[in-house]
Amino acid sequence: MARMKQPSLPRWLAAPVARTAGRLSRLLGRGGGTTLPGLLLNRLRPEALEELARAVPDGVILLSGTNGKTTTARLIRAALDASGARVAANTAGSNLQRGVATALLNAPEPDIALFEVDEAALPALVEQTRPRAVVLMNLFRDQLDRYGELEHLAQRWRSVVADLDPDTTLVYNADDPAVAEIGAGRPNSVAYGIDDPLLGREALPHAADNTNCRRCGSPLRYQMVTIGHLGQWACPSCGLTRPRPDVIAANVELQGMDGQQIAVSTASGPIHVSLRLPGLPNTYNAVAAAATALAVGVTPTAISGALAERGAAFGRAEHVTVGNRRVTTLLAKNPAGADENIRMVLNETHPLHLLVLLNDRTADGQDVSWIWDVDYELLLEDDRLASLTLGGTRAHDLALRFRYANRGPTDFSVAPEPSAAFDTALAACAPNGRVYVLPTYTAMLDLRRVLADRGLVPEFWEDE
């Protein structure tokens, strides 16, 4: 029996209905209207997303990866803005089809569109938007209950790249073996990476992913390790090796939580970036942004100035002043991201007051066993912690994890409810001190809601 074709309203009718739904969502306090309009539009007119994407004269950029999508998209957006383009973007981070449709629906005659895209949603969105550029950042083990093992996502990305239009530019991370194996050798591609030997680590961390060759399965050898399984790698068995990057962070000076200086080498000329974002993950984000902006015609000068001006996205190394204390939020939702945040925090010289928040909602991944692969033990060495507060829907799982980390009694407070956890962490911090919050994704949104209700920050959908 033939399937009935889904009915489709004319766009002149479907679009206003969807926009009105978004406005009502905000007025009624039901959310930011970042997903409902697109969800409704796709129901009323299934072909609307494809039509809206086709109408963008300078094309669509799709960016995907496990870690760093929102920050990298924010940096690329800054470069596009500096070029004078009118940009459609899913700034609030709604990265499924409905979020992309909402952003296009609400953009008044954009010149170009930029969307961060969920890793599993990338194939469908490539098909619907026919992008000008696709950016593949990294593949880390994340949300196993939703994605399965990394090979599943890697295979889907291989299929996406194999089917890309020859005119589509592929921007990819040469330092990630899984991503590089997909992108290397494809015409019309731009590779990026880090080549500063001072940033290298001696060995792979115990929780590293993708440490075997994606072509023959043999163990990879590393000349330099940066984050997790990223670095300068090669397979001694089949000869697969890290491609030479086209856009390279050749010299990086990390400056604690205040940011970093990055000297980027490109065929279009050097780019010096004074980045206001800390840590090696943001070094990768900045280089990915520079490579993407260059690929769509932004000048090195415009890129340098734009990246220097751009601050943190909500929850991504974002600083908020609360009375006479500074609160810094460092999102992490998998072992690689959590370990990097721990290393950044441990490089600070003042007393460490930590609030760790763990949720297990759908957007976090309901399997929280990954916390046993995080190097929380490092936090308990040398009596670095001045206070530790644990919160979120799985606060007691964190408490058990920290008991094992210390192999004995550990002083910490457990407060599952986000407002109470935040107040407990603040109270433990001396005046003029600093609190570092390490949340998972929905825990970060919970904390953001607490801060917004207290008038300390705007709602996340208002963050530009």
Word description of this protein:
The structure is a single chain. The protein contains 15 helices and 17 strands. The longest helix has 17 residues, at 11-27. The model has no long low-confidence stretch (mean pLDDT 91). Helix 3 (48-54) crosses helix 5 (97-106), helix 8 (150-162) packs parallel to helix 9 (177-183) and helix 10 runs antiparallel to helix 11. The strands form three sheets. The chain has a nine-stranded mixed sheet with strand order 2-3-1-4-5-6-9-10-11, with helices on both faces. A six-stranded mixed sheet has the order 12-13-17-14-15-16, with helices on both faces. It has helices at residues 11-27, 36-44, 48-54, 69-82, 97-106, 122-129, 144-147, 150-162, 177-183, 279-295, 300-309, 335-346, 395-406, 418-428, 441-453, and strands at residues 60-64, 87-89, 112-117, 133-136, 169-173, 189-194, 221-225, 231-234, 247-254, 260-265, 271-275, 316-322, 325-330, 352-357, 385-391, 413-414, 434-439. Helices cover 35% and strands 20% of the residues.
